[in-house]
Fold this protein.
Amino acid sequence: MSFMDSIKSIGFQILRKMKKLKPKRYENYRSWFADPDEISFVEFVEYDFITIQKATNNFSETNKVGGGGFGVVYKGTLEDGEQVAVKRLSKNLREGNLEFKKEVALMAKFQHRNLVRLLGFSLEGKEVLLVYEFVPNGGLDNFLFDENLNPKIVDFDMAKLFGLDKTHDSTTNRTSGYIAPECALQGEISVRTDVYSFGVLVLEIISGQKFARFQNEESMNNLLIYAWTHLKGGSASNVIDPMLSGISCPVHEITKCIHIALLCVQESVADRPKMAEILQMLSNLSLSLPVPLAPGFCSEASSQFTRNVKSVSDQYNRKMQKKKAKSYAKTVEESSSSVEISHVESHLKYELITIQNATNNFSEANKLGAGGYGIVYKGKLENGLEVAVKRLSKYSALGNLQFKNEVALIAKLQHRNLVRLFGYCQEGREMILVYEFLPNGGLDGFLFDPVKCGYLNWGRRYKIIESIGKGLVYLHEDSRLRIVHRDIKASNILLDADLIPKIADFGIAWFFALDETEGSTYTIAGTYGYMAPEYLMHGQFSVKSDVYSFGVLVLEIISGQKCSYPGPDLDLMNYAWTHWKGGSSSNVINPMLRGLSSPVDDITKCIHIALLCVQENVEDRPTMSEVTQMLSDLSLRLPVPSVPAYLIDNNDSRISSSFSSEGNEMSISEDEYPR
């Protein structure tokens, strides 16, 4: 992995941590664990204590790989040969149980290829253990590197959760050197606190020196001041690690990264960029950047910072000493963690009788929709949780494959713009998938309804477009697998109570290893109008196939018309391209979005972006990460799109064509609710 890739990867991790996981904040973690609905469906395992003892050679010193305030980490090898990292929390620290519960609760909601993976846990008596994937190359303190030197953020026991409408909080426990001034001096934290820490980390990566042990020949004992002084004086190359210097060293790029890092560590919270903005800067180093102000903790503030950190540290240590006197056993007994956490596993499989009761025995009154692969019902579990139950057809040739595919895939995915799978049921010939229930149904139910479409003003439509794009970026780049959905369309986008979109229906999704980019198949499954030409004609697909489908969907969202519009002689893509080329893009816009207050220029830019996505040549289409960058900054200059693929079909129907010696077998359905 290159120098720039490492910095960008860590930046992406921090951004995903901020943007994907912002549920309601809980002070009472016992109540969190007591409610199984608060813990997402993840494949966690509860290990016997004896299993972990054997794996770590009874927690021997030779297996020890590190330690911290909350316990010791050991390397272990399970009976099947899998290597793991075992965090053994301190028995003398009552706070440790809170950290244990917090970390399990957090990791239950995290699934990202750049976050360390929690495999399971063990609770027995006073022993509290967390079992992680083993990352062989150690770390940059809180960043671990796998065998390919891909970084992974680890250690969430001090993480804070916020509601989506909350931006800051307070705390007393952070790591000296990486602490933002507002945190050290007032105990205030926000997402910009992580931005500050990221900036410090970038400077450490570039300079090869620790912030806390910074040494130089210029009597400066602060890495931030040293970097800022040299950038201001035009000698930023002095900050760069000597081993990076050389004729082939991209000094200009590294200097730009120093500049970005210094924007992150500015003293004023408001002056620091967001992580999304930082990623844009890192992705395009030719962008013009603002001049960074002096970093936090300069001159007099630096000594105040040192005094404050010592004071905070002393207070925390005294607090911990007091807590040691309290009964740790009582904490375990009160929390009943071993029972509560088991709900993570219990969500994996439901009994058929439970689903029958929830759906009133699959009654017609509970039916939400039907498709080629089965019927979807609304259900209510015994604990009051409303769910959507997909009962796959017993006679569908692809039903069993779809069932296995969806369970295997969604178990590994966690993103606020993907529908959540709570579990499944498989008894006899019954194959049932249980999802979160989203009350507003499919996006198509709003877009193409003459009354409901009025709820979707441009602001909401733009947010839906942007959110779907983020969900696809996660599937293509940020999940543990590279996933091509293969059936992105309006009816497969579900809307929650707040009209936040979630991508659904992974029954025909295809996953690749991270070093693979494309595949091919003789079985074409998807929806006419949304399928990329190379897939429909030749069975070839890649992440760019989803990009094509996304472009079609964006045009539908903007126009309020199905992709077969405006008639048999011209499809929506060519209609939009013709008007865009002729300077009359406003004709494509849904009439209800036109008006004096309508941001026609912004909508036209989105049409432009959509047309880039539906270009016939796969190579000409942007990646989804490039698309989301375009959407986040509509002032960017865009390339001119070529003529889109010319696909005409009057029937906006689900198809599944199997090419074989017996001929073409086709299944068509009209899905009101995703399969």
Summary: Residues 20-43, 299-347, 647-675 have pLDDT under 50 and may be disordered. The domain at 444-666 is CATH 1.10.510.10 (Transferase(Phosphotransferase); domain 1).
